[in-house]
Design brief:
The protein is an alpha+beta fold. The chain has a domain of 58 residues. 26% of the residues lie in helices and 25% in strands. The protein has 2 helices and 6 strands. It has a 4-stranded antiparallel beta sheet, with no helix packed on it. A two-stranded antiparallel ribbon has the order 1-2. The radius of gyration is 18 Å and the shape is globular.
Length: 133
């Protein structure tokens, strides 16, 4: 994590680039890279496995295996739909209106705090220090 490009923004105190490496319990490894310095606000996720890749590039999902590549394009603005559902769930106190649980939000916060502490200490950190799995 570092503030490298956006130092000209007054009062900025968050990193503009982040890279987090992690190991799951089953031994799989992952990497998360984030930055807000690009004008197109590109985002994505790739899941790689033996002979397949699932790529989410912000709105489309592309699945590639050894035989074919298929891309799925949404028919609605799901960012707007998920924001609307989240706000409605909180306002109505009905967490079942969203597809993810509040517990998942707590887990995301735990992973974020662990990554921040790992950056500050320069050491790997176990997520179990922040959250009982």
């Amino acid at each position: 994590m570092n503030l490298l490009v956006s130092k000209d923004i007054p009062h900025i105190d968050i990193p503009d680039v982040t890279s987090v490496n992690f190991t799951l319990r089953n031994g799989a490894i992952g990497q998360l890279g984030c930055s807000f310095i690009q004008p197109d606000h590109r985002m994505g996720l790739e899941i790689l496995g033996k002979n397949f890749r699932v790529a989410f590039n912000g709105s489309n999902i592309t699945i590639t295996d050894e035989f074919s590549t298929t891309t799925y394009r949404p028919k609605l603005n799901y960012y707007e739909a998920q924001d609307r559902a989240f706000i409605e769930a909180i306002a109505a106190n009905q967490p079942e209106l969203i597809l993810s649980s509040y517990e998942n939000g707590v887990q995301t916060l735990a992973a974020t705090l662990a990554a921040n502490d790992s950056h500050e200490n320069g050491e790997p950190i176990s997520l179990s220090n922040y959250y009982s799995l």
